[in-house]
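Thanks for the sequence, V.! I ran prephenate dehydrogenase right away. Repeating your input here for the record:
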Amino acid sequence: MSLRPVGTVALIGLGLIASSIAWSAKRAGQTRITGYDISPEVRETARRIGLCDQVCDTPADAVAEADLVILCVPVGAMGRVAEAVCPYLKPGAILSDVGSVKGSVIEAVTPFVPAGVDFIPAHPLAGTEHSGPEAGFAGLFDNRWCLIVPTQGTRPESTAALRAFWESLGANVDEMDAQHHDLVLAVTSHTPHLIAYTMVGVADDLRRVTDSEVIKYSAAGFRDFTRIAASDPTMWRDVFLSNKEATLEILGRFTEELFALQRAIRQGDGEHLHAYFTRTRAIRRGIIEAGQDTDAPDFGRGGAARK
Ligand SMILES: NC(=O)C1=CN([C@@H]2O[C@H](COP(=O)(O)OP(=O)(O)OC[C@H]3O[C@@H](n4cnc5c(N)ncnc54)[C@H](O)[C@@H]3O)[C@@H](O)[C@H]2O)C=CC1
Ligand SMILES: O=C(O)C(=O)Cc1ccc(O)cc1
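Predicted structure:
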């Protein structure tokens, strides 16, 4: 990869995503990594585990030499962090982020971006329910998408450099505009997370009735919901407050479909239920046949036995 030349990358916010970037960059070689986190405990942990070449005590020190600065904080903190780092960016540096929402981040960060710096938002579609500097690992982005959202006036060579950086971490890169990104993610990530939070909340409300049976007899579906519902509360609060419009649009559609299924169950309309489930099964199989589910261990790729 060539990052004019491969120099220093500053990571601001040293949690799951930043630590995964740091380990992945180390695996790829070449890059020098500096880092800063608002939490002294996180900075201390980052130093102890050798996450960065240099963990700095101020955002200014972390970004001063950086060719690429990546904001890895919750979406609601992006504006504050941009305000803190932007005055200290090197002329010609690239500023980027990894936030799960793009429209609100662009709105919050852009006013602080100085002339001569390209701000190129990005979003790796990879993560876990864990957070913090010890949660990251080098393979997190392997074969995952990273969506980049070039803003107006971005120099093509800066976009190419950011693309090459993410590719060096193992990701496949695509470009998308912010509004489209936020709608797509509302469907594929944000609303599913909200549904998981709700389902686990419902089970918890019923715990006096079910005692611990819900956990004891959890089939895979509910287990997956509990994993997702264990995700970081600050991060997800910010995601929903920042992607309000698209999430509400998708939730509205979801509720309508849910009511239709509820009515079919009440009315004993098996035909409706069967047709619906047949349609959704075809969607899952289409994803697997297109080779787009890298998590499917045995189903799909050669999994004809289960078709
Ligand atoms: N967790 C996930 O699965 C994914 C998260 N993202 C996005 O990546 C970003 C970071 O998420 P994680 O790494 O999971 O979070 P995390 O909770 O593991 O780490 C965030 C870090 O930011 C620090 N921080 C908060 N405010 C700060 C400030 N003002 N200045 C400096 N540091 C500050 C916190 O102390 C914390 O260490 C979020 O915007 C999230 O939407 C993107 C893809 C996946
Ligand atoms: O852990 C999971 O299942 C995830 O969905 C991880 C994730 C969370 C947030 C993102 O913006 C992207 C990926």
